[in-house]
Amino acid sequence: MRILGIETSCDETGVALYDSERGLLAHALHSQVELHAEYGGVVPELASRDHIQNTLPLIRRVLSAAACRTDEIDGVAYAAGPGLIGALLVGAAIARSLAYAWNVPAVGVHHMEAHLLAPLLEPDSPEFPFVALLVSGGHTLLVQVLGVGQYQVLGESLDDAAGEAFDKVAKLLGLGYPGGPALERLAVAGEAGRFHFPRPMTDRPGLDFSFSGLKTHALTTLRSAGDDTQTRADLAHAFQEAVVDTLALKCERALRETGLSRLVVSGGVSANQRLRQRFSQLGKKLHASVFYPRLEFCTDNGAMIAYAGYARLAAGRHAQSDLAFGVHARWPLDAI
Ligand code: KG4
Ligand code: ZN
User: Fold this and answer.
1) Could you tell me if the CB of 82 is within 6 A of ligand 1?
2) Tens of pLDDT along 168-181?
3) DSSP letters for 224-287
4) pLDDT value at position 178?
5) Which atom of ligand 1 approaches the CA of 138 most closely?
6) Which tens digits make up the pLDDT trace of 33-49?
7) Ligand 1: does its nearest atom lie under 6 Å from the Cβ of 179?
8) Which CATH superfamily is domain 128-292 in?
9) What's the rounded mean pLDDT across residues 111-139?
10) Ligand 1 touching residue 137 (CB < 6 A)
11) How far is the CA of 91 from the centre of ligand 1 (A)?
12) CATH no., domain 2-116+297-335
């Protein structure tokens, strides 16, 4: 089975072709980072317009790189939410039009499900069941995964997502957008132990998260400590430690509570090297295996959408048959 995947939920246009026998055949990404950088964050209308301009050329590029004819495609998957509504509509309209023209199914994929399944594209991929920590710019979720489409949300952020906290603190520190990678680079020069940030919600039972307090803590610390280059680096270091440590503590709890020994960490923040270091310590401590997508598939991409579309079709968990299409700005993962 061969599936074309289209991702347009936020600020990356991603397209990929997945083949169930041969794996990923080709993928291409157009990042809008430069477009939004001068505004310090994503401007939804600009994102939609840019997706309109780039999606079809990327599809052509991917099909040509894979030397794939359109009559060899068995389905078209697209991110149907959660995300920016205008941006989602671009991908949905293109995907469903192509699927109609090619007379194959169109599969609306949940963007977070696609992040969750992304490590299954790798050679050393996890078997079900596993616990998944999804850490992106819009969501932080801990999920018990029994199989494709069988998701029980164990915990989630009650306010800012982990990536959002990185972006907001990066902004405070005068770093560009997106802030996560820039903050990680700055933290390398930071001195450990000068500042200490709280580990929110770890002093009580439960698996939910709250990251908005860390942003306030960063602001008040910056005001009282004086604003020089070393202070900023020390602050970035302490903030990153707090986020990574909090995520690891909650994952340890989730693994113990579920009795599972496989952990998937995915979404943009899973590209963070300090996070990966901390999670490999956790894996050793609990005799658990930790799985990530390859670095370029941690952040948004078309490959994870193509794979999730394939997984849905293969599992027979695809119901939409009429021509109408819906996209969802908000869409709980356990409601799919
Ligand atoms: O999954 P993703 O590409 O998009 C969403 O679905 O939201 O995640 C983007 C988020 C941004 O908040 C970005 O700052 C963060 O992931 N991010 C990182 C790193 N790379 C991306 N955060 C921390 N360290 C990184 N290396
Ligand atoms: Zn994402």
Assistant:
1) no
2) 999 999 998 889 99
3) HH---HHHHHHHHHHHHHHHHHHHHHHHHHHHHHHT--EEEEESGGGG-HHHHHHHHHHHHHHT
4) 86
5) 7
6) 999 999 988 999 999 99
7) yes
8) ATPase, nucleotide binding domain (3.30.420.40)
9) 97
10) yes
11) 21
12) 3.30.420.40
